[in-house]
Amino acid sequence: MDPRTPVRRTTMTSTPVRVALVGAGRIGAAHAETLARRVPDAHLVAVVDPRPGAATAVATPLGARAETEVDAVLGAADVDAVVVAASSVAHRDLVVAAADAGKHVFCEKPAGMSLVEIDEARRAATAAGVVFQVGFNRRFAREFAQARDLVESGTLGEVRQLRSLTRDPGRGPSDPDVVPPWTIFTQTLIHDFDTLNFLNPGAHAVDVVATADSLLFPGHATLLDHATVVVRYSNGALGTAEASFAAVYGYDVRGEVLGSEGMVTMGEGASSSLRVHGQGGRTASTAHSDTELLRDAYAAELAELCAAVREGRPPAVGADEAFAAFAVAQACIDSMTTGGRAAVATSVLQEA
């Protein structure tokens, strides 16, 4: 959303923002608990999920009502905002429907499954004058935010190289056939693409070279479970994004910025500062899920939604950032398809 575009203020600025959550899966359940228990300016009103019993299992312990149809909350007078945590293929339609109903929207990444879908969601929110925030949680993780501050202050000098990685815990998918094609770019590395963009303010991605393969199921027709991407930026900086679906030691998220005057690193996957030193060496407890490692970041991004709604302003991360990150993901798909360097779109017209 253009920061100059006014956002319609909720009618209840002195009370918590009333939120309905759509999607009661793993991340939806985590968001529901966060909204109900860790965000003082939010009031979880309802949970929506079409699967029998799914919404009830999440909503009842949190004192919210359960619904099976999204229209039940889009037309509800006691709902100010909708948090979309349903399947990614439904994100565009849910964002547009919520905006058309006059509800503010928080949408998990990606905000759509193509640049056209994301642009349609952006246009719907702008036309309705509602807040449209996208769930790029690393921007709200303290270490990553502090690294951005160092870059913006000039402490690191000119940005020259950046790195971001995501390694999912475990040994990979139990059934590779159920993983949609290009998931590693559009669902996993989308966070890293946004992180690289976030840590290189004022610059935009120009082109990428992507390499990926199935190392867990060699020869699989569509699964890509390990990937390395090199991104070239308009300020000359080079970014590297890496992803793996199988880190047996835990959930691993890290970043790095190398500048002309110094370097900053962030993230190591440790769930605490406790270190055990014994005959087997030095060990640390590591996080085994995103909701564990980034617990505070999830709370902070939902608190930002409520603040933007109550203050009548655009959120810190919205449709433009969602578009920019997905543009890198699309360029990775293009690079893999052609086997060479692929340009990063800056508008839907360039994508067409």
UniProtKB/TrEMBL annotation:
Keywords: Oxidoreductase. It holds the Pfam family GFO_IDH_MocA_C. GO terms for molecular function: nucleotide binding; oxidoreductase activity. The keyword Oxidoreductase applies. Residues 17-136 form the Gfo/Idh/MocA-like oxidoreductase N-terminal domain. InterPro entries: Gfo/Idh/MocA-like_OxRdtase_C, Gfo/Idh/MocA-like_OxRdtase_N, NAD(P)-bd_dom_sf. SUPFAM superfamilies: Glyceraldehyde-3-phosphate dehydrogenase-like, C-terminal domain, NAD(P)-binding Rossmann-fold domains. Residues 148-341 form the Gfo/Idh/MocA-like oxidoreductase C-terminal domain. Belongs to the Gfo/Idh/MocA family. This is Dehydrogenase.
